[in-house]
Amino acid sequence: MSGLVGNYVFHALRFVADVNEGAEFSEDEVKKFSSLLGMPTKKIDVALRRFNDVFRKYIVRRCVSYDDIEECIFTWNTKVPFRPFPLAMHSTGTVILFEDGKPKELVAFPQHKILNYGKRPGVPEEEVKEEVPIEVTKRVDGWHITAYYNPVIKEWVFATKYLLRNMYFCSGRLIIDSPTKVTNPYVEIATKIAEESGLLSKFKGYEGWTFNFVLKGPEPAVTKPPYPLPSDYSNFKLYLISARKSDGTLLTTKESVELIKWEAVPIVELKRINELYEEVKNSLTTRSYIVRLRSRDLINPPLIELESQRYSDAMMLKYLYRAKSLALLTLDEVNKEELVSLVEPQYREVTSKIIDEVLQIRGLIGSIQSVEDRDKVISEVLNELTSVNPKLGSIRFGEFKKALERQNIKRIVKKVVGLALEDSSIVGTAYDELVKIRETLDRVLSKYL
Questions:
Q1: Alpha-carbon distance values, 366 to 35, 210, 380, 412, 431 (Å)
Q2: Which of 208, 216, 226, 386 is the most buried (most CB within 10 A)?
Q3: How does strand 303-307 pair with strand 288-292?
Q4: Which residues of the chain have pLDDT under 50?
């Protein structure tokens, strides 16, 4: 356990396997082990209980067998909120070979967890906002693909962040095929691209390394499109993110490109982090920037994501015609022309009309502030809105009144249009729903204004 250089999932599993075989460890070694689990203790029984809890609640293990060898991928359980303790940071698709139930070899050590800027859990803005990273890249909105050498079958193979090459979900159920098959849809696409482009030959001599890619498709991953068909591979592109050496050192994107001469995710000009965030936070076309901070730790250099606050809604509008996203972006003061240009020409007129209705609704709700008997008006408005759209019945009198008192008009308008348009499309009933709300507000408020 000395030093604990390398992959923390592998270290923890090896420690427990050694304990099960009768090995004894000093209190300091137990503390190092338990620290990986986010709960430092010198008591071996407490540490082992914590290990069992972590692998029962937080870490998902999925395996495939080759006779007496098991190949397992370890990822964070997406059903529980992420907790940034050391082992969790490496639960991003780590792949380990087991023999007779004991971890034998680490074969894939993907890029560790990227933390969010200014969010919890994440990295507080005040801690890093003045720093200039050593590298900044644009996040390509696709699916993470790991390339690694499998010594059992003696081939370079691919995996996604959560599944090995022969695994996929069908109606929520995990399907695991023979280890010789490639049935993971994203791995099928990546494999086809690699075979046709000569990428596999570029990995020669790098056995023991891990290469991180992102697979970009015709639709962004944020919209959660259905599984692709293998025959659609020509519509996908594989971008290099980084390479990790066999000793665990994580190379920058630029260093990685120089090794295998493969197109990488776009590299962004270096600036202070707060400047980079200002640049990306309102982007409709870039999901985020990924920044790598300067660090003496070459295995776990801090990686931070600076997210756009508007990208997700922009993509939901562009690809899924989601009316709620259009309304929210409108209330965030996004330029009307930018929003209209996101959709196909035949839908631009109705998009423009929806924007106009949202702005009129905002103006009408804002006008309630100038009414004398505000409580009476709010009650009547809520009753009438509920009669035209029962979903609006969940808006409480208190929250409506408080929003007006605090002059937070945007918040209550977002609540009204968000509920009304929850399942609506711009090519469906969204416009009519908003017209009903606007006409109702107009009718009620005309008696008081």
A1: 53, 56, 15, 10, 21
A2: 216
A3: antiparallel
A4: 1-3
> What is the pTM assigned to this prediction?
0.93
Q: Give Cα separations from 67 to 95, 129, 151, 249, 337 (angstroms).
A: 18, 52, 14, 32, 61
Cα–Cα distance, 216 to 73 (Å, whole number):
22
Which among 374, 361, 371, 369 is positioned nearest to 417, based on CA atoms?
Answer: 361
Q: Give me the helices (H) in 37-82, please.
A: 44-57
- Cα four-point dihedral sign 432, 350, 315, 187: positive
Extract the tokens encoding 210: 């891990």
What pLDDT, in 10s, does the model give residues 394-444?
A: 999 999 999 999 999 999 999 999 999 999 999 999 999 999 999 999 999
Ranges of H-type helices in 301-373: 311-320, 323-331, 336-342, 348-367
Query: Are 166 and 188 spatial neighbours (Cβ–Cβ below 8 Å)?
Result: no
Structure tokens at 234: 């020509």
Q: Output DSSP code: residue 264.
A: B
Q: What is the structure's pLDDT at 5?
A: 62
**pLDDT for res 56:** 97
Q: How far apart are CA 119 and CA 116, in angstroms?
A: 6
| Residue partners of 117: CB distance under 8 A and separation at least 6 | 123, 125, 128, 273, 277, 304, 305, 306, 307
pLDDT in tens, 137-179: 999 999 999 999 999 999 999 999 999 999 999 988 999 999 9
| Residue with the two structure tokens 């059903």 | 79
Residue 267, token pair as written in the block: 């590299």
Evaluate the CA torsion angle 127, 136, 119, 331 in order and state its sign.
positive
CA distances from 41 to 46, 53, 82 (A): 7, 15, 22
d(CA 190, CA 197) in angstroms, rounded, equals: 11
